Amino acid sequence: xxxxxxxxxxxxxxxxxxxxxxxxxxxxxxxxxxxxxxxxxxxxxxxxxxxxxxxxxxxxxxxxxxxxxxxxxxxxxxxxxxxxxxxxxxxxxxxxxxxxxxxxxxxxxxxxxxxxxxxxxxxxxxxxxxxxxxxxxxxxxxxxxxxxxxxxxxxxxxxxxxxxxxxxxxxxxxxxxxxxxxxxxxxxxxxxxxxxxxxxxxxxxxxxxxxxxxxxxxxxxxxxxxxxxxxxxxxxxxxxxxxxxxxxxxxxxxxxxxxxxxxxxxxxxxxxxxxxxxxxxxxxxxxxxxxxxxxxxxxxxxxxxxxxxxxxxxxxxxxxxxxxxxxxxxxxxxxxxxxxxxxxxxxxxxxxxxxxxxxxxxxxxxxxxxxxxxxxxxxxxxxxxxxxxxxxxxxxxxxxxxxxxxxxxxxxxxxxxxxxxxxxxxxxxxxxxxxxxxxxxxxxxxxxxxxxxxxxxxxxxxxxxxxxxxxxxxxxxxxxxxxxxxxxxx
Amino acid sequence: xxxxxxxxxxxxxxxxxxxxxxxxxxxxxxxxxxxxxxxxxxxxxxxxxxxxxxxxxxxxxxxxxxxxxxxxxxxxxxxxxxxxxxxxxxxxxxxxxxxxxxxxxxxxxxxxxxxxxxxxxxxxx
Amino acid sequence: xxxxxxxxxxxxxxxxxxxxxxxxxxxxxxxxxxxxxxxxxxxxxxxxxxxxxxxxxxxxxxxxxxxxxxxxxxxxxxxxxxxxxxxxxxxxxxxxxxxxxxxxxxxxxxxxxxxxxxxxxxxxxxxxxxxxxxxxxxxxxxxxxxxxxxxxxxxxxxxxxxxxxxxxxxxxxxxxxxxxxxxxxxxxxxxxxxxxxxxxxxxxxxxxxxxxxxxxxxxxxxxxxxxxxxxxxxxxxxxxxxxxxxxxxxxxxxxxxxxxxxxxxxxxxxxxxxxxxxxxxxxxxxxxxxxxxxxxxxxxxxxxxxxxxxxxxxxxxxxxxxxxxxxxxxxxxxxxxxxxxxxxxxxxxxxxxxxxxxxxxxxxxxxxxxxxxxxxxxxxxxxxxxxxxxxxxxxxxxxxxxxxxxxxxxxxxxxxxxxxxxxxxxxxxxxxxxxxxxxxxxxxxxxxxxx
Lengths: 490, 125, 451
Description:
Chain A is α/β, with parallel strands linked by helices. Chain A contains 14 helices and twelve strands.
């Protein structure tokens, strides 16, 4: 049964929190600027708490179950991270406090910059971008600025594979660059011939996700990167799939010039129901001057008596800041805690087990589902959600039926280059029983698709809510709680 | 699939009526997009348009597409009804769903209904 | 320690199913010479050790809970966060959930965001809110994006008041370098005593958007009615970046006729946390909805006839429109939007009004007392909310050093951003500052002027 809205639960005269009376002499409010009504709800604390607790029961979450969403890396979110991020020594610091009073914060940021550099091989890192897409925009602006700085005004095209996440072309367009799509070959690699043909002196660079969104490591990675470098372009790495490469490969070693990290994927910071994320960006030496400022640096070296003093500096040719203040510090604390607890060996184990788990599921699903690319996958793989002998059944139906087996569906309909795609990424934090249960559910569903297809078409049956009327949502737009005409008036 | 014989068609699923100068998207296109929820005509009366130039931006529940001019000419009318009732494109793409009318519409690269019908068949996967 | 459950035996069994001999066999596509780099990172810590290390780092700060009394604002404010907010945020069902793309199993997140959208519209006086942007600064940048899209690139000028937060203006300059837009008005040497009317000469037929802040960076309140009328007469849109607590008391930008109202939602139940994660709220009018970026939750019915919520108008977004999307935004600030919704629900009309009033009263008391100190004077005439600018007899850094010695975090040094405001301090006061604390601030400031 649906939970009423906060406005429907409201009752005049209630308040959840009150504050002390004023302890200063009264000043008059400017009459000409006063607002006449404030249509906010009125509830007691118990009402508010019950409301949100009831809402929470309608959410599937990682804490509740398996979430094999390809490209999202829904790994377990360690609880210690939630505690360290909430230490009052961190949460009660203001972003504009004098640097001498926040040496703890600056040491943490400096170290995290360092660690992220070490993990991917880059020379410099900014922690400022708020999310992956924000990091992409940052990286694209850096690439643009680099070429402009060299007086190379001809470069206006960004090469992007057809399997790329939508944020790649969108970030390029936000930087007024023309997007040129590059096809994939039959084995899921970027098509080298097409890439070569597209590279010329108007190329800003290539945005490459590797492993790509099919979960495949490009078999000609270094060649592809060389082709772009040869024409004077730069190579951007979309780090969304870094969970396959920790301690396995440093993207900078392979030739990437700039890359964003997703702390909310690879480094376990929680997804929050749609954020906050955090998208630091790493660059090679030649791009370091263009990073958004400020960056954290040691402004005074340590002496015998004094520890080093951390502070800020602005790179010489900075593209400028990409948001206010320093970035998502709360997520940095979580990522720091995570990396500190794993160490170099732990990080490598993350990727080894993430890749193991994905290949295990893939191996067990052979025969039940078509897997278009018959190669070892990395941390995720794509299967087709359709069968010739189950007419009318689509990936969507499989996804909805999985909910009846208590699993969150995998990513649907992405990447665009596979029909009825189901992108499955188990991550390293799932045990074998879970993986086996998931495989068995998928195999059962494959059976049902042929024998009792309506079970899929009308799924989910066991969840509190059924499929949504999305056409109605879009055509009869209702985007706010309904309120009576005079709500909130005195 | 509805493909009226009096109209001409482009490879990008637009139609053109040489008799009235009207153009829009085809039944095939609206079927691919499914439930359309938003249409924005991106050209205006007085502008010169040509094949390759967008005349409308269309959004459905799950997809988005640009509609391009199916012929060259000066725009003399745009369909004001569409923004308030985008579903007309699904129910009546060739009639009430016209998007733009041009004066002196020209395009030698247009297919007739037979050729377009074949083209649509070949594309089905 | 890691969070990987497998035992060696299980790993062996899995490798056998896959048909390879060892883990290494799964990585043969990695170029051999780069495979298995040695990462120079400190060895792994246990949870206990990590907790201690992070504890030490946090103790390396002076914080506003135990060490300092704060009068620092400038875009981030020390407001009281009711206990219930974090209890709800810590529920795993909320914070470990993903973006609600599968509505059947995400009604918690979806309804919470729908309610957030409603609450923000109520606060700003606007018709539609999205599910959030990263922060106030990027919300302003997205307003420019939206205006550019609204005019289909035919208007290429954005006018921004110099009294908008310096870091917001800097963010706009960064975004605009990649767009076909000219930024005007961004001049810290402009006459800061002139009201919003000073922008009028810059607004013309090529202006897509005018951006102002409410209260402005110096804490001042203006009615933008006339400016908005003039901008509209010239065909331009207006964006107001507003402080959400101020909106509890004062005329909304919606009522003034603004087309877009954005702002920093950190004051709504979100900790200072050294600058992030925060919350960019973004609202507009129904007619512009298709040019608005960001996620939107709409109401509908499910297949069983129940009222339910779902992400809607998703074809606007990057995963569908790709290079034709208005913005690249994907992740937003979901959990922070939840925090704001819980905060607003707990305080409600009465509580929020009370907080705003306390901020106003205490700030005005502080301003009056500071004004009385010989050598100090409040610099602007306009009415203000909870921040005000003070002309000081000595450099702000000197005064702040002295204040710090007394455990007080002084205001923002305006001279950093505005050459005409050297030796000017921006002081913020919230409901967290008692009369005693304000009196102590005044006492120390008095001391410094003599020293």
